[in-house]
Design a protein that fits this description.
Layout: H1 2-8, H2 12-21, H3 26-32, H4 38-44, H5 48-53, H6 61-82, H7 88-98, H8 101-110, H9 121-125, H10 132-150, H11 152-162, H12 164-169, H13 179-189, E1 196-202, E2 209-216, E3 219-226, H14 229-246, H15 248-255
Pfam families: dsrm (PF00035), Ribonucleas_3_3 (PF14622)
Organism: Corynebacterium aquatimens
Enzyme class: hydrolase
Length: about 260
Amino acid sequence: MGRSKNKNKIPGEQVWEEAFEAIDHAPLLERLGVVVDKQWLKLALTHRSFANEHGHLPNNERLEFVGDAVLGLSVAGRLYDDHPSRPESDISKMRASIVSRYGLAEVAHEIHLGDYILLGKGETATGGREKDSILADTMEAVFGAIYMQYGFEPTRDVILNLFADKLAVVTATGLHSDWKTALQERLAELKAPTAVYSATAEGVDHDPTFTASVTVGEVQLGQGIASNKKKAEQMAALEAVKLLHDNPGVVARIDA
């Protein structure tokens, strides 16, 4: 009986191939702006949980190692060029904020990377496609795959395009990864009420657009539009922080 079951068991390599082929990767490649060969893309999208469930197939951890290095160098080079008067200590903090797990996961959310990751049953059941750690690691693996196929400069171009918004707003005290906290701290300084967020979604289910707003008391302080709710709220909070620092009249309205 045992031998009969083993004969009928589908080999891991076949399961791997079928799982990969069942997904249309064209939208992902369009968002990346580069064509990635199947062998590299399949490996980059294979989480260890899937690999281990199917006979210890190869997984994306080695590509993740390469992608981490390429990401760091790409961002460091751009920051060096964009901030010629900043000391090493400042641009080091900037780089760390951009290539953090949060920053990587946010980019992964923007390109809907979670829809394409091959996960084991356990990770799938526990929301693995939305976990920042898995999204960040897979994002690095994708960069590693692009590097292995094309080399450094094309990979750098992909990275800088995906991180363009973050590079534009990064500061020495950190990226906008926690503008909601920054807003609350500013409101606490002003002894103002707690910020309240609201968000709406429009568009098709697989590619929605979120609009978030943040209000304090009766005053709307900011609005953000993004491909996921978390980023839209962060953008709204960023707008609010800037408004509170630059516009005394708004602070007076809140106090009133």
